[in-house]
Amino acid sequence: MMLDKINITSKRELSVYKKFILLFTTVAVMIILVTAGLFAFLSARSIKTSINHESKTIIEIAANNIATPLYFSDYQSMDENLSPILKFTEVKFISVYDSVKVLLSHGSSSGEVAQIYPRDPDIAGVQEVFRSSILLVQSMPIYQNKIELGTIYLGYSLDAMNDQLINSIIGAVLLGIVLIWSSFLPIRSFSKRITDPLKDLVTTMEDISGGEHNRRASVKTNDEIGHIAIIFNKMMDEIIKIDLLETALNEKAVLLKEVHHRTKNNMNVIISLLNMQRREMETREIDDVLQLMSDRIKSMSLVHEKLYRGGNFATINLDEYIINLTSQLKLSYMKTDDHISIEYDLDTMEVSLERAIPLGLALNEIITNAYKHGFKGRIEGNIRISLKTGSAEKFILEVSDDGLGLDPGLDIADTKTMG
Fold it and tell me: What is the dihedral of CA 190, 195, 200, 205, to 10 degrees?
């Protein structure tokens, strides 16, 4: 039978459901992390742009406020105009230099305005302050009546920006965690929609392999997996049909084998009865007739024996049948001191029962006549049998010998015997 119980002992790897969960979760985490990183990057760029614009606006206002006092060298008014600028929380310092880099005014975030280095300022020291990592330093030339009077430097604190960036990053991380957690349930649901039908299909296969041949997969979806389940069920139905047909064929084969076996045995019983009758016959003529009948029955019996022994009840191997039949006839008719040989030139071919039996009878007559009449007065001779494949399921059987040949006065068309 095709459907036998199968023991499944192979070690399983990670289930498809867990693989889907792992895959989708990994992809979701990567997308969320990229999104959160992009959000943090865009937020930082927006904050930097806003701070840069704000600091430029402040220094531009400061430059406009001190242009006139600086033009008239009214440093007191210049410092007074700078004081409101220093009240901005983010503004840490303002320094004003004239056109030859002389420090004219320097104010700190404490609100004090003082002139530092009124002559020959330490520019390197001022630049070092400007390069502080917590400050954004903006500079702008001071013009009055299209005359460049000097340069104003403004130190703008980045502490607020850093706080906003940290808050943005924390927000992005929290958003990513929330998105990851909220996406787990949809991912789990989506994965189950894919893997549950597969799991059911695998369970069905295991049940069938365990002997539940009537088990069928349930079709839960209308997608490719559902289509696989439908095809699987149809395939199992066909396998069951084939299995039933094979069972029926095996039963018929056993029955047919028994029929051929019994036919062969019945023919052997007939042969035995004929042989018993031969021993009671007193005339040679009747004995020869019984022997000839026995040989003819043997030729048919051999066909049935070939059929049930070969397992193929439709055809037999013709070349093997010819060899077996002629060997039996040789044992029946050749005397102990005779040296008559048989040469074979046979192609391998299969023939049906309907063709084998008449062919066997004909060959039985030919070989019997060759032994009985072809070598009278001789103890040596040769019989040659040739079997060649022809066209259109035909074949050519030739039997010849080097004996005496036919009686010149014999009319083949008018004989009283079958041979």
Answer: 160
pLDDT digits over 366-382, tens only?
888 888 887 877 778 88
The phi, psi pair for 307, rounded to 5°, reads: -65, -50
Condensed to tens digits (0 to 9), the pLDDT of residues 104-140 reads: 888 776 544 333 333 334 443 343 343 444 677 888 8
Q: Which amino acid would we find at residue 391?
A: S
List beta partners, residue 152.
Answer: 96, 140
Cα-based angle 335, 340, 343 (whole degrees, multiple of 5) = 140
The strand pair at 147-157 and 339-346 is best described as unpaired
The tokens for 265 are: 């045995």
Q: Is the pTM here over 0.90, yes or no?
A: no
Give the alpha-carbon dihedral of 193, 199, 204, 209, to 10 degrees. Answer: 160
